[in-house]
């Protein structure tokens, strides 16, 4: 497996027959779609994430959910650092993809892990370009993805977790991240403070 990015076509190739790309959506040019031209929904990749099987969970004290959340946080923080480096305009970074590839190799089905991790990575990047109905950028950026992933790992169904943040204010989303104990793991305050220039 060799994951690489074509900046020209805005496509991440996971293999010769599998890719994810950014394309024009209804609101912006940052909609993520797969090789079948399907834009994966939150519920899709939340379910895929929950189905991942690490090769060795003893690293997390035998707790699969803790292991999965640790790797999710690694990817979440890649997007945060990427946004900081690019003044609030993250894009796919080859170094990030190399780390995602390394993480994927620690799973029983590395290709499935890579697809799920890259989908999460790209959809979290796209959140930085999401505009509210007022035209302003989202205040919470990719924090709702972390809340959704945490909810799934805590037992919510993927479709329930995907719908949770709909019609919630940024204050409610941040309060939930604090309440369920993930705020510090995702450096929530740091994410909020990154200016989009």
List the SSEs and their pairings.
Elements: E1 4-6, E2 11-15, E3 18-23, E4 31-34, H1 42-50, H2 64-85, H3 94-104, H4 110-127, H5 143-153, H6 158-164, H7 170-179, H8 188-193
Antiparallel strand pairs: 1-2, 2-3, 3-4
Helix pairs in contact: 1-5, 1-6, 2-4, 2-5, 3-4, 5-6, 5-7
Tell me what the structure shows:
The protein is an alpha+beta fold. It has one domain. It is 48% helix and 9% strand. The protein has eight helices and four strands, in the order ββββαααααααα. The longest helix has 22 residues, at 64-85. The chain is globular.
Strand order of the biggest β-sheet:
1-2-3-4
- Tell the overall outline: globular
Total E-strand runs:
4
Main beta sheet strand tally, sense and closure: 4 strands, antiparallel
Task: Estimate the helix proportion, in percent.
Answer: 40-55%
Distance between the termini: 36 Å
How big is the Rg?
16 Å
Provide tags for this entry:
197 residues, alpha+beta, four-stranded antiparallel sheet, 4 strands
In short:
Helix content is 48%, strand content 9%. It has 197 residues and is an alpha+beta fold. The chain has one domain (4-193).
